[in-house]
Design goal:
- The structure is a single chain.
- The chain has 555 residues and is of the alpha+beta class.
- It is 33% helix and 31% strand.
- The strands form 8 sheets. Strands 6-12-11-8-9 form a 5-stranded mixed β-sheet. Strands 23-28-27-25-26 form a 5-stranded mixed β-sheet. Strands 13-15-18-17 form a 4-stranded antiparallel β-sheet, with no helix packed on it.
- A hairpin with a 5-residue loop joins strand 17 (403-407) and strand 18.
- It is elongated.
- The chain starts with 9 loop residues before the first helix and ends with a strand.
Length: 555
């Protein structure tokens, strides 16, 4: 079996998309439909890993046969392939062990499940009396049932992944735990595969990406935090399955590249496989699923025919069948078919085509990063997102009042400044998918005035007791933003317009926030127990004046 130059297998495409999809999903309230999506796609990916493992076995059998027939010709590439095989086996076994330990020790202690298809009842202990996973039982459950037996509650837990894989301190992940160990092993695997391939490494595209990335708050975080912190258990399990899939796909491409060098110039092959390369395996409702079908180990110029989901298609000049279908039905979908290939002896050989993809309903989300409301005249950070849609394809459309909207750094990040007098705004999320713009979500937010400021005489707040000495020494009355108000305000924009100061039966009005000589005289003549009352008119950054009362008792 050979490999085309820099191909992306269907699994690579699916895997690359899955991380972005599920990260975006986490911005939503986790619904039953989303959890079902994790179960369906996780099971499909688990089954897909079995298929790639079988194809790898076929490739290694071909390599073994070629080595037996021509040991001198094949030896160098064969030994490199065996090295890659051992590396991949080691890392996938480690990830598999971590997955089983995580499930058994943190997710489920036992399995009680009746398979609706086979009617078989499963009753397995997944954890021993010491709290340690019984890995062989967990592995049996995954291999036999997939992800279907997990309960929604188990998959919704957003604490277990971080505790198990990175520890309690997100800023300093524990290197003894699984996430950093997996990252280090994958990094070693990538380096050794590239070394084994030598100059040919540039022709093999590995989907494994260990780079740091931005979390939903727009902060740059390490790979281990990005993948295992603040994610639900369902997403963590899909991530582990994805990492195994990416490793095996890298192994598959690398070994086929080595085999291609061995078989260069050969005119026939003992095995043929159909390779499906979807543009994406996560499609929004109304979008288009597209996949390219090739015959591995055959001349790319040789044309062939295929029947896929009832459609008759003939390959183009590049030897590729392109299948497209509009996706209107939600949930997991399959494509099945047969490719009809002309064999070297002139006959026709048939090969099955199977692939899976998932169709989801568009769901745009507007997140208010500061509060649950927005405030007139202030910078209000907002973030828009939609599961499965690149943030660059999203656009906010706002109705209901005057405002200023500015794009910020970070995916889907904006700054919204409502005008004074606005009561509420409706923020729509429009997405451009396959060249068509559609509305995928809306949220109405209420616009509030800035909360009343805090008045202080010197550093003393309202409601307490104040000595005449302290009052005489602090002649400036200041106004600052409310204590629990999270949005940023430049306090220099909160200014005192005028105030009326009353001590006992006397009062004085000044057009500033500073005591004049009349007020100073009132303070000197005041006695213990007299009430100090200040009625302050304050101009806020939104252009509105607010009246605030300050009281204190002289001691």
């Amino acid at each position: 079996m050979g490999a085309t130059n820099c191909p992306e297998t269907p699994r690579q495409k699916m895997i690359t998309m899955m991380y972005l999809v599920y990260t975006a999903m986490l911005a939503l309230n986790v619904s039953a439909e989303v959890i079902q999506g994790f179960k369906s796609v996780g099971t499909a990916m688990h089954d897909s890993n079995k298929n790639i493992a079988a194809k790898l076995e076929d490739t290694y059998q071909n390599f073994d046969l070629a080595y037996q027939n021509s040991p001198d010709k094949v030896r160098e590439m064969y030994e490199r392939a065996q090295e890659i095989k051992n590396l991949s086996k080691e890392i996938t076994a480690y990830i598999d062990s971590m997955e089983c330990e995580f499930i058994g020790s943190k997710v489920a202690s036992n399995l009680s499940y009746k398979d609706p298809g086979t009617k078989k009842e499963w009753d397995l202990m997944l954890r021993d009396e010491n709290g340690k996973a019984i890995q062989e039982n967990v592995r049996l459950a995954l291999d036999s049932i997939g992800f279907a037996w997990f309960t929604d509650k188990q998959l919704e837990d957003n604490h277990a992944p971080a505790q198990f894989f990175i520890g309690g301190d997100v800023k300093n992940p524990d290197p003894k735990l699984g996430a950093i160990k997996i990252k280090n092993k994958l990094s070693e695997f990538i380096n050794k595969v590239n070394t084994a391939l030598g100059d040919d490494s540039s022709h093999v595209k590995m989907a494994l990406n260990l780079s740091d990335g931005y979390n939903k708050e727009g902060e740059l975080v390490p790979w281990e935090v990005l993948n295992f912190n603040e994610v639900i258990t369902g997403a963590a399990l899909v991530t582990l399955t994805r990492l195994k899939s990416e490793t095996m796909n890298a192994e598959y491409d690398a070994v086929n590249m080595l085999y291609k060098k061995v078989s260069k110039g050969d005119k026939s092959f003992s095995n043929v496989a159909m390779i499906s390369r979807p543009r994406s395996t996560y499609i929004l409702q109304g979008g288009t699923y597209e996949t390219k079908i090739n015959v591995a180990a055959y001349d790319s110029k040789q044309k062939f025919k295929a029947r896929i989901n009832g459609q008759e298609i003939t390959s183009g000049d590049s030897g590729t069948v392109i299948y497209r279908t509009v996706c209107n039905t939600l949930g997991p979908q399959r494509i099945t078919g047969t490719a009809y290939v002309t064999s070297p002896d002139g006959g026709t050989e048939e090969y099955p085509i199977n692939d899976v993809y998932f169709v989801a309903k568009p769901a745009g989300v507007v997140r208010l990063d500061g509060m649950q409301v927005v405030y007139a005249g202030l910078d209000n950070p907002i973030t828009i997102s939609a599961a499965g849609v690149d943030s660059r394809s999203l656009k906010p459309v706002i109705e209901g009042g005057q405002y200023k909207l500015t794009k910020q750094e970070g995916d889907g990040s904006y700054n919204l400044v409502p005008a004074a007098g606005s009561k509420k705004l409706t923020i729509h999320v429009d997405a451009t998918i396959d060249g068509k713009t559609q509305r995928v979500g809306s949220q109405t937010v209420f616009v509030k005035d800035i909360p009343a400021p805090v008045i202080k005489v010197g550093g003393i707040e309202s409601g307490g007791r104040i000595a005449k000495k302290e009052l005489s020494a602090n002649t400036v009355v200041t106004a600052t933003k409310a204590k629990d108000f999270n949005l940023k305000i430049d306090n220099r924009l909160i200014r005192m317009v005028k105030m009326t100061v009353a001590i006992g039966a006397k009062e004085e009005t000044v057009n500033s926030g500073r005591f004049n000589e009349t007020i100073a005289s009132m303070i000197r003549k005041a006695t213990k127990g007299d009430k100090l009352v200040i009625l302050a008119e304050v101009m806020m950054p939104d252009g509105k004046a607010q009246t605030v009362t300050y009281t204190a008792t002289l001691k």
